[in-house]
Write a structure and sequence with these properties.
single chain, 271 residues, alpha+beta, three-stranded antiparallel beta sheet, 9 helices
Length: 271
């Protein structure tokens, strides 16, 4: 009912002419407007039927997602191809994806899925790696956009070690984040937002072991595990090389004859 009532209210609002006709018929009380009763009744019944089927579809989707969250496996879907369908729903594109799904306890398989991609998750889709919840027996699966945003690095993934006060930024460390998300799921901990794991010492220890192993980047500071080395300077080009490049530029029409003569004269003058 919690799903049906809001949808019914919206459906009646969109088809409000039906209830208006019914009210007008009883207010006017004239047999000549009997058509308003039947028309209003038909429209109102249609509103209710449409709301029922939409609510049923929505409920099944929520129920399926709940069951996958409870009993399914967390896996990864590699995006093999993306096709536009030229269809939009609420100004959001519907796309056809070809996916290869795999993960712990999941026999790898490929599947096609047509779905509406929220605009805010298009960047995550471009990363070509999606988080999915999979029923390992039936192969039924759903894309988890919130977890996908973390895998793609489009959402921050920061962890604080309460023992030392040090913060780690694991954004973009997709393999480590998959491990951490599996820990959350195995312990029935909602993933997303700010989560305090001190009330679950087992899960906290597992997560911090992963964070400390990966190291990550301290929030607000450089990654001290990485050292950037300056590239050695390129060796100077010989006059013959410079003249050859000049000839090639002239042959390609990139410089005029006057510019060619001026640069050639300067190169020869440096000999």
């Amino acid at each position: 009912m919690r799903t049906f009532v809001p949808i019914l209210a919206f459906s009646l609002l969109c088809g409000i002419v039906g209830p208006i006709f019914l009210v007008a018929y009883f207010v006017i009380g004239d047999p000549m407007v009997g058509w308003m009763f039947y028309t209003g009744l038909a429209i109102t019944i249609l509103d209710v039927v449409i709301a029922f089927f939409i609510a049923q579809f929505s409920y099944r989707g929520k129920r399926r997602r709940f069951e996958l969250e409870q009993t399914g496996r967390l896996g990864v879907a590699d995006v093999l191809s993306v096709e536009q369908t030229n269809v939009q729903v609420n100004n959001q594109p519907m796309m056809k994806l070809r996916l290869r799904i795999h993960g712990d306890g999941i026999a790898p398989f490929e599947a096609d899925k047509r779905l509406v991609v929220p605009l805010m998750h298009l960047a995550a889709l471009n990363a070509r790696r999606l988080a999915v919840l999979v029923d390992p027996y039936s192969g039924q699966f759903e894309i988890d956009w919130q977890r996908t945003s973390l895998l793609a690095g489009s959402a921050p993934a920061r962890f604080t070690d309460t023992d030392t006060g040090r913060e780690f930024d694991l954004s973009g460390h997709s393999d480590a984040l998959m491990e951490i998300m599996s820990v959350f799921k195995n312990n029935n901990i909602p993933f997303g937002g700010t989560v305090d794991l001190r009330s679950n010492p087992v899960a906290r220890q597992q997560v911090m072991d992963i964070v400390r192993r990966v190291g990550g980047q301290p929030a607000g500071g450089p990654d001290l595990r990485k050292v950037d080395y300056a590239a050695p300077p390129a060796p100077p080009r010989s006059p013959s090389q410079r003249l050859a490049e000049l000839e090639a530029m002239r042959g390609a029409g990139n410089i005029s004859d006057a510019e060619y003569q001026a640069v050639r004269t300067r190169i020869l003058g440096e000999l």
